[in-house]
Fold this sequence. Notes:
Blueprint: H1 16-21, E1 24-34, E2 37-45, E3 58-59, E4 62-64, H2 71-83, E5 93-99, E6 105-112, E7 124-128, E8 136-140, E9 142-149, H3 150-156, H4 163-173
Parallel strand pairs: 1-6
Antiparallel strand pairs: 1-2, 1-4, 2-3, 2-9, 5-6, 7-8
Amino acid sequence: MAPTMSRWSSYDWMPEHVVAERKRSAGLLVFRRRDGVLEVLIGHMGGPLWAHREGQAWSLPKGLYEPEEDAAAAARREFEEETGLQVPTGDWLALGSVRQRSGKEVTVWAVEGDLDASAAVSNMFTMEWPRGSGQRQDYPELDRCIWTDLDRARVLLVAGQVPFLDRLVEQLAG
């Protein structure tokens, strides 16, 4: 169960000191097989900016981590914080890293498990809303989680996370 990095790092060409300065996130893609269909657990991003969006408004449970922190440990922590669910036991599949348009590097592992998506309860974040009002409000990082097949996940997930679905399929095909 020792997670390791894979060949999919998007930063092979960059000097190490440049990569270290970038923001980094780590996350888990939990998957299951239901009636012969591969499904993934994803969460709808919380807060007013995402409240009325569906397409490209969903995410894998993930979050920022510091350079000295282990990425796999951060993925576990962020999954539990953003879903309130325990990480399934089992072998982790390294899905590598993808650099987002913002420049953030996202590293993801996959693990098989069958969790109750309706039981997910996320941690909260605080932001000023409406902008410029001086009022600060709390919102869940993920306001709901669902199981969905890969075709629907491709439409719902933010574009920068879709490559992890392809990598999962590739890993499972072995």
